[in-house]
Structures are given as structure tokens and as C-alpha cells.
Amino acid sequence: MPVLDFLNPVKGFGVTFREMFRKVDTVMYPEDKRPTAPRFHGHHQLNRWPDGLEKCIGCELCAWACPADAIYVEGRDNMPEDRYSPGERYGHVYQINYLRCILCGMCIEACPTRALTMTNEYEIADDNRESLIWTKEQLLVPLLPGMEAPPHPMRLGNDEKDYYRLGGAGVVATARAPGMAGPGGPTGPAVDITGANELAAGEDEVAK
Ligand code: SF4
Ligand code: SF4
What we know:
This protein is an alpha+beta fold. The chain has one domain (about 35-205): 2-Layer Sandwich (Alpha-Beta Plaits). The protein has helices at about 10-20, 60-65, 105-110, 135-140, 160-165, 205; strands spanning about 45, 70-75, 90-95, 115-120, 135, 170-175, 190. Strands 2-3-5 form a three-stranded antiparallel beta sheet. The chain is elongated. Residues about 175-208 have low confidence and may be disordered. It binds iron/sulfur cluster (2 copies). One iron/sulfur cluster (SF4) binds near residues 70 and 102.
């Protein structure tokens, strides 16, 4: 046994003392909440068009793309006097089961209308199964100023194609609701709809 081996226990405490004075990496959650990475996959949201109509067309592509079978959608036909989205159909029932969801993002990639996006919000834990099945009412973004609660007629054009050309018509994203961040914005596409109601003049005008 080397002569200085009796100092080994003291050396061990040396490591302990050195760590005591290092900067602490522990985050005191939930008092201290750090921002996530911009592309962090938090819970989902269902977005609206600038006039308040829903972007979801009830196509179920998100449900078919989901590897965990976590999404349930029932589409229904829009009626002229009872319209919830531009085009033929809308998502009448929409549920995401967060007991199954692995937040992989396959569903938002599959969505053809960008109706479904993900937020940066990660606080979705709960203590019962029922609360972890989120309904359309929970997922749908709130109405922002300038939006009108569906059902109502299409305000931004003659048909659904006009809605997909809003960018060309100068309808641009402005801000998200307070406390929300991330691609797509958890509270949906806050937009400047100045002049948007004049788009009904037709395709040529919308495409300018
Ligand atoms: S994030 Fe992934 S697991 Fe969750 S609902 Fe979408 S596709 Fe399914
Ligand atoms: S969220 Fe998108 S993919 Fe899913 S039903 Fe609605 S439009 Fe289709």
C-alpha cells in the first residue's frame, strides 16, 4: 500500500467541495420556467383564418399519419347557412389523446392546410385520463381582434382557393398572443386583415 493512500478519502471529499462552489445547473421548476427551443414540440393547436373560419377541413390526414393513433377526427359538410371553414367540409369532432401522443410532429407535417401546428407549451400533465383527451374546443385557437366566431360566410374571397392566396393579397402575419411563441404561434395566425374584406372581388385581384 503506497504511503499516501490514506489521503484518498480526503481527495474524495475534495471533489464534493469543488462541486459545491460551481454554478448550479438545476432549474427550480415550476417557479423558474426557461424558454424552450423555437422548434420545440409542445401541445397542438388548431388554427383559424384571419376572418375566424377554421382551417381544418376534416380530412383526417393527421389521424392517418399518427403512429400512436392519438387523433380522432369526424368531418362534416359545411352548409351555406352553417359554415365553419372555407370549402366543403370542416372538422366537426377533433380530439387528441395525450396519453398516447409522443409529440413527434408527424400529424402537423401531414396537414394540408396548416390547420394543425404545435406550440411551445409543454405543461400538459394531469392526474386523470379524461383531462388528457383534448377536444376541439381546447385545441382551437381563440378569436383574435378582427375575427368573427363561425359559423359565418367566407369573408376573404369567393371560394376556398382565395384563402390559400392570402399571402399574395398582402394579408400578413403580425403578432401572436401574449405568452405564446414558436412556429405557427400557439394562438394561431394573428394577422393584419386590413383590406382583406375587399378580396371578394375575385381571383385576379386576390392573386395580385
Ligand atoms: S405528435 Fe405524433 S403522436 Fe402526437 S398526435 Fe401528432 S402524429 Fe400522433
Ligand atoms: S388538422 Fe389538418 S390533416 Fe387533420 S383533419 Fe384537419 S385539415 Fe385534415
